[in-house]
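Input.
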Amino acid sequence: MDRPIKLTIHSSPSQLPVVRAALQRCCELIGFDSDATGGIVLSMDEALTNIMKHAYKGQPDQAIEITLTPLGEGGHGGLCIELRDFGRYVPREQIKSRDLDDVRPGGLGVHIISECMDRVDYSPGEGGGTVLTMVKNLPTKQEASK
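Output.
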């Protein structure tokens, strides 16, 4: 994989299986192991679910743009994922994961994303909405052998 892949989906949970499958295959082509791939796919799933729930308040027909960009030569440096919505922008300081001691379903997406990804940036989109950028670096050969 050496060029960005761009997808536009609707803000419907029915779109998630296709995105998960495409991202999983991209991760395999780049060279991530199964654990890293699982974390990357889970992070994407959590981020898209949050966009659908919070930015679009459950409206299933809104656009979400996804760009998967390989990093480094031939993608062997990792992957940059950019999600762009056109819904309600929430400043980064207002985006909080709930306390991990509060055991119940939901509310851990932000925590999961920050644990699985190497870099996470939120910024307002030009004309409204949010741009979420998530980066996962491919471990160097030295790091992978530890």
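Strands lie at 5-10, 63-71, 78-85, 119-124, 130-137.
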